[in-house]
Structures are given as structure tokens and as C-alpha cells.
Automatic annotation (TrEMBL):
<dbReference type="InterPro" id="IPR047718">
    <property type="entry name" value="RsbA-like_anti_sig"/>
</dbReference>
<dbReference type="InterPro" id="IPR003594">
    <property type="entry name" value="HATPase_dom"/>
</dbReference>
<dbReference type="InterPro" id="IPR050267">
    <property type="entry name" value="Anti-sigma-factor_SerPK"/>
</dbReference>
<keyword id="KW-0418">Kinase</keyword>
<feature type="domain" description="Histidine kinase/HSP90-like ATPase">
    <location>
        <begin position="200"/>
        <end position="305"/>
    </location>
</feature>
<dbReference type="InterPro" id="IPR025847">
    <property type="entry name" value="MEDS_domain"/>
</dbReference>
<protein>
    <submittedName>
        <fullName>Anti-sigma factor RsbA family regulatory protein</fullName>
    </submittedName>
</protein>
<dbReference type="InterPro" id="IPR036890">
    <property type="entry name" value="HATPase_C_sf"/>
</dbReference>
<feature type="domain" description="MEDS">
    <location>
        <begin position="7"/>
        <end position="151"/>
    </location>
</feature>
<keyword id="KW-0723">Serine/threonine-protein kinase</keyword>
<dbReference type="Pfam" id="PF13581">
    <property type="entry name" value="HATPase_c_2"/>
</dbReference>
<keyword id="KW-0808">Transferase</keyword>
<dbReference type="Pfam" id="PF14417">
    <property type="entry name" value="MEDS"/>
</dbReference>
Length: 323
């Protein structure tokens, strides 16, 4: 069995196209003894089971809405599955149908970034990943991004190179060059002159509770804010400030700014730490705690932590990829 990593996009138009690309891929995985996982919509899962027949018993099916709930957590869990399969002498063969609608723009960007960085993090696992994209149902920018983040496309029984494929780190850097919107005029402002984390956490707690952020999410926010502010105090340059506001989605936004500039190659905590690094805190864990994290550094550094507010639909704000 070939251990070469593969990450391919399947642009499809209709059920027949979808099945032509996915059913043979899953069937071959079962026959090869791979760990075969199909993450799809409910409708796609139904037609796949019908098409596969008895072979479907060798496939683990998962609902896309649940599986694609959080970019960093899904990234880490799936990477762990790929590594565990490799340790067992098997291959993880994943069919992953991403969910793009009903997401705030910042989350869409993070999922697009994950699609790019999969090519770095999974390279040594030997995993095969196939990502179907409904070309007529999705915004053109989402489909265009898929061609930039997947080295190859599946067309019928053929696999072809994507000429628009972009180096994952270059793609990620482009995401971080997009300008952020200005904080609203009524954003709460706290200037951080002394390293008093007790009062800072009390300030954040008061604002978040008034905004009706659930207690569990508040505790995640407090840990994330503590890490980011501590990093600014240790490595940034004054003045250091924190702003809080609620935005469309709706989301609660906590922004920390300082006048320092990050050194190139810091990685921004975008890939799960490996080996002895597992369990360390830092920006990776901050990404696990928040719905999305936006970082900009140049003349100054801006770190925005976004937590989606619960029980309210996030809307259908799907961004057009610009990377």
C-alpha cells in the first residue's frame, strides 16, 4: 500500500457526479483495509450508503454539521486519527464534505486556512483526504479557494494537478494580510498599564455576562485573554489596550493591541503541536478556545478573539476567498 499523502478536491455538479467520485474512493479504502471515514451532509450520506450497499458497513459515517463544528478542534482530532492509523500500519481515508453556509466570515477564512495547512500537518501520516465541493451550490470564491488549497482535483476517474495550488504557508500569510474592520465607536476600552490580570479578568467577566455569554464560553474566553495579554506584556511594547464589543453573527469580540511586531516564522499557533509539545499552552490553545482568532502584525500587533454567541443562527455570510 502506498503511504504517500493525498489531499484532493472533488468539484461536483449533482448526485451522479458526487457518487462517481466518492463511491469508488470509499469502496477501494474498505478493500485495502484502510480506516474509512465519510463526513457528509445527511442527504449525501444516504445516497452513499445506497450506492455502496454492503460495503457501507466498513465505512464510519459522520454528520458534517457536527464534525465541522470548530476548525482547530476538528483539525487536531482528525490529525490524531491519521497518526493513530499510521501507527497501526493502516491509512486514514477520509471523505470530508465541508460546511460553508451559516458561518460568519472569520470562521470561513479559518476553515479555508485549515484546508491549506492540512497539506503541511498530515504530510507524514500517509492519509488520503477527498473533499467534495458542490460547484453550483457554493459561492464561486469558496470553490476557487478549494483549488488553491488542494494540490489535486478528481475528475471522474482521473486525478489532475491543480495549477492554482498555493504553498500552504503563503496562502495562510495572505489570509493574515487582509485588513480588519475598525472596532465600533462604542467598543469598551481598557488600557493595560500594569500587569494586573485579576482585575482584567473581572472586567472581561462583567462585560461578557452582560452580553449573555454562557459561563462555559466565558471561562474559555478568560483563559484565552489571559494568554494573549500575558504575551503582550512579556513580548510586546506599550501602549497595550483591550477592546470588547459584540458584532454581527452575533459574536463577542475581544481585541488586544500593542505596539510590538512579531518576528517572521512564529507560526501564529496554526498547527497542533506534536510529541513533547502536546499540552503546551500558547496560541494553538487560544485557537482551540475561541470560535476564530485573527492576528495582524506590522507597525503594531492586533489579536482578535471571537466567540460566537449561542442559540442564534450565524447567518449565511460566506466570504469570497481573496488569498
Amino acid at each position: 500500500m502506498s503511504r504517500a499523502f493525498a489531499h484532493r478536491v472533488l468539484p461536483f455538479d449533482g448526485v451522479d457526479d458526487f457518487l462517481a467520485g466518492t463511491a469508488p474512493y470509499l469502496r477501494e479504502g474498505v478493500e485495502d483495509g484502510d480506516r474509512v471515514v465519510a463526513v457528509t451532509s445527511v442527504a449525501s450520506g444516504f445516497v452513499l450508503r445506497e450506492a455502496l450497499g454492503p460495503v457501507a458497513d466498513g465505512v464510519e459515517f459522520a454528520e458534517a454539521e457536527r464534525w465541522y463544528r470548530h476548525p482547530a478542534r476538528t483539525f487536531a482530532d482528525c490529525l490524531g486519527d491519521a497518526e493513530e492509523a499510521a501507527r497501526q500500519g493502516r491509512r486514514l481515508r477520509l471523505l470530508g464534505e465541508p460546511v460553508w453556509t451559516s458561518r460568519p466570515e472569520a470562521e470561513v477564512v479559518e476553515w479555508q486556512r485549515v484546508e491549506a495547512l492540512v497539506n503541511v500537518a498530515f504530510r507524514e501520516t500517509g492519509a488520503w483526504i477527498l473533499c467534495p465541493y458542490a460547484v453550483r451550490a457554493l459561492p464561486a470564491g469558496v470553490v476557487a479557494a478549494a483549488r488553491r488549497t488542494h494540490p489535486e482535483s478528481v475528475r471522474g476517474s482521473r486525478v489532475v494537478a491543480n495549477p492554482g495550488y498555493v504553498d500552504p504557508w503563503l496562502y495562510s500569510a495572505r489570509c493574515d494580510r487582509e485588513p480588519l474592520s475598525d472596532p465600533p465607536a462604542d467598543a469598551e476600552l481598557l488600557k493595560i498599564d500594569v500587569p494586573d490580570l485579576y482585575w482584567l479578568r473581572a472586567y472581561v467577566s462583567d462585560y461578557a455576562r452582560q452580553a449573555a455569554l454562557p459561563e462555559e464560553d466565558l471561562q474559555r474566553l478568560l483563559v484565552a485573554v489571559t494568554e494573549v495579554v500575558t504575551n503582550a506584556l512579556r513580548h510586546g511594547r506599550p501602549p497595550i489596550a483591550m477592546r470588547l464589543w459584540t458584532g454581527p453573527g452575533p459574536v463577542l469580540v475581544c481585541e488586544v493591541t500593542d505596539e510590538g511586531r512579531w518576528a517572521p516564522g512564529t507560526g501564529y499557533g496554526l498547527i497542533p503541536p506534536r510529541g513533547a509539545g502536546r499540552g503546551r499552552f500558547g496560541l494553538w490553545a487560544v485557537r482551540l478556545l475561541c470560535s476564530a482568532v485573527q492576528i495582524r502584525t506590522g507597525d503594531r500587533t492586533v489579536v482578535r478573539l471571537l466567540l460566537r454567541m449561542p442559540h442564534v443562527p450565524a447567518g449565511r455570510n460566506v466570504t469570497v476567498d481573496r488569498a
